[in-house]
UniProtKB/TrEMBL annotation:
GO term, biological process aspect, one: thiamine biosynthetic process
Principal EC category: transferase
Pfam families, alphabetized: Phos_pyr_kin
Protein name: Bifunctional hydroxymethylpyrimidine kinase/phosphomethylpyrimidine kinase
Classification of source organism: Bacteria, Pseudomonadati, Pseudomonadota, Betaproteobacteria, Burkholderiales
Pyridoxamine kinase/Phosphomethylpyrimidine kinase domain span: 31-273
Gene Ontology cellular component annotations, sorted alphabetically: cytosol
Gene Ontology MF terms in the entry: hydroxymethylpyrimidine kinase activity; phosphomethylpyrimidine kinase activity
Keywords noted in UniProt: Kinase, Transferase
Keyword Cell wall biogenesis/degradation found: no
């Protein structure tokens, strides 16, 4: 079953070329290293066939290994950027990354409430580099303002556990369903939990609701430290949802795209590796064998196919 098509209230929607790329509105910070942030979103969305509409919410001072500082934009500047394109261009999905301040979260929530039929993919990065007071204020605002309008929450197992289940006392590690139940209490219908540790150097990535595990994809861990994986995955998911794919198919394809990006990853500086989001544009080695023509990934016996699911509209007003 397909997700909601783009129906943002632009007066000129009927004039849009139906063969043109779908448009994805992105709220994220500028990352000068190109590892994550808007750099990752723009490259990823374009790579999977969408047109990015990047709204700058602030800027990092960072290199490929470490975040030194973040400088948030004024919330009015963020709102005006987004309103300008929304009143002109039909938007098929929204991605929310790290936006730097509670004020920016409030602006995004207010804008999103005016477009309840546009699905929202919210990515929760690791913010352990930030000071405790601004981090707590940011997380409280995200829970109160943006999550009630979020269609899919994306994050690593470790990050989502620390944030959504801070008082977890069970001897076993939280499952994706445990995380989904905590997210449902904040009105989030779906979670995509990545990097769940498995034996033999494998990790699982699980799409879940509070009621059930909807599907999973298991991958072997890479022998490298990557930066920008979460932004890549969430941007790909937003673009694939925007293209009209149901959530199950979009999730599977986004995970496959990330796996290929990591497999082709590179180390631009002295820090971490980053995904090559344009891996498909690189020339193939002359001795490339026939395996290159095989499907991106094949499900093994431990991987459950992800079926299609419909995202409900978000209609919370702020």
């Amino acid at each position: 079953m397909a997700l909601n098509p783009s129906n943002s209230p632009s007066p000129d929607t009927e004039l849009v070329d139906e063969t043109a790329p779908v448009c994805v509105l992105v709220f994220n910070a500028s990352d000068p290293s190109g590892a994550g942030g808007l750099s990752a979103d723009i490259a990823t969305i374009a790579s999977v066939g969408g047109h990015p509409l990047p709204v700058v919410t602030g800027a990092y001072a960072r290199d490929s290994a470490k975040i030194f500082e973040h400088f948030p934009f004024d919330d009015e500047a963020v709102a005006e950027q987004a309103r300008a394109v929304l009143e002109d261009i039909p938007v098929s999905a929204i991605k929310v990354g790290f936006v730097g301040s509670p004020g920016n979260l409030a602006a995004i929530a207010e804008i999103a409430s005016d477009y309840p039929d546009i699905p929202i993919v919210c990515y929760m990065p690791d913010l352990s580099w930030w000071e405790e007071d601004p981090l707590d204020q940011y997380m409280d605002a995200l829970k109160e303002l943006v999550l009630p309008q979020t269609s899919v929450l994306v994050g690593s197992h470790s990050t989502l556990c620390r944030w959504l289940l801070p008082d977890w006392s069970n001897s076993r590690s939280p499952t994706a369903r445990d995380i989904a139940m905590a997210a449902e209490a904040l009105e989030v219908p779906y979670v995509l939990v990545t990097g769940i540790p498995l034996p033999d150097q494998f990790v699982d990535n699980v799409l879940a609701t509070a009621q059930s595990v909807l599907g999973n994809s298991k991958y072997e861990m890479f022998d490298a430290t990557f930066t920008g994986s979460g932004d890549t995955l969430s941007a790909a998911l937003a673009a694939l949802v925007a293209s009209g794919n149901d959530l199950g198919l979009a999730t599977q394809e986004a995970l496959e795209y990330l796996d290929r990006s990591l497999d082709s990853g590179f180390r631009p500086g002295m820090g971490h590796f980053i995904p090559d989001r344009m891996f498909w544009a690189q020339p193939e080695p002359e001795d490339e064998d026939a395996e290159a023509a095989e499907p991106l990934t094949e499900l093994d016996a431990d991987t459950q196919a992800i079926e299609g699911f419909v995202m409900p509209p978000h209609d919370t007003k702020h």
